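Ticket opened by: R.M.
Priority: normal
Category: complex prediction / small molecule

The reporter submitted a protein together with adenosine-5'-diphosphate and asked that the result be attached to this ticket for the collaborator who will pick it up next week. Submitted input follows.
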Amino acid sequence: MIQVEGLSKRYARTLAVDNISFSVAKGEIVGFLGPNGAGKTTTMRVLTCFLPPTSGKVSIGGFDVLEQPMEVKKRIGYLPESPPLYPDMEVGEYLTFVGKLKGLASADVPKRVDEVAERCAVADVKGKLIGKLSKGYRQRVGLAQAILHNPDVLILDEPTSGLDPKQIIETRELISSLAGDHTIILSTHILSEIEHSCNKVIIISKGKLVATDSVANLTNRLRGTEIVAVEIEGPQDVNEIRQKLEQVPGVSRVVLKDSRDSRNSFEIESLQGESPRAELARAIVNSGWNLNELRPMGASLEDVFLQLTASEKKQAA
Ligand code: ADP
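Result attached by the on-call engineer:
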């Protein structure tokens, strides 16, 4: 659905995007992750035909952004970081205006406006002035305008930035509910955003692509180790348990997290490429202790991100 090959974008002396390539398949939700200034907005502006690439090729649904921008725009809904809203317009009036602007047939506009207002949970404020809405509502009106013409692709720039925690959850749920019908790229500098909403992640740093993979693969590939949380009910002497766990083949590190009422919680890190979960369970049970919990934790995306961008940071320092 989205093909980016060797894309670069230069603003005067700044090379904001430096030869990046990636593709996004139909129906995927992709997180575009990178620190501020990494080049996320610039890439999104090229994808949505707001800026021409300096070099490289970008196509959406088979249409080139330079050669057939009208075809590309028909297929794209864009929510910029600050949505293009008119504070003096009422929500319904604004969505009707955008619908006409996007070339919907006049007869279809009222029905479509009602549909998207319902979908984006702004139907109850259709008669309100946009300028009087809370930030969460404004963001949802922004999403409603982005999906009005039912585009194949949605490009969302920092869709939850500046929202309070409740609004963040509501917006995330809305984005997830749109996923089945649309291919989505959302940019963020917040790691948890990706873990919540996306099945694939593209990481850029200083204009360069540093990784692209599924969220699960990325965490596993980079760490190659597994962390398991266990809770064991056993002897008073925690060291006895620790020693037993350390002897299990494939275990590299045992960290005591909590200990009370003879319930002991540990995090156990495996050696590279090892998965000692079954061995751990056997060792605990064979010692006559209760195994209350055994839960794989995986590496956090935060660790991965820091690893990937560490070399860039060191160079900058
Ligand atoms: P992000 O969205 O990841 O924060 P941007 O794409 O906004 O990153 O910016 C990437 C780089 O390009 C930054 O160094 C930024 O200062 C620069 N930049 C962005 N827009 C412009 C512009 N209009 N003119 C000059 N430099 C720009």
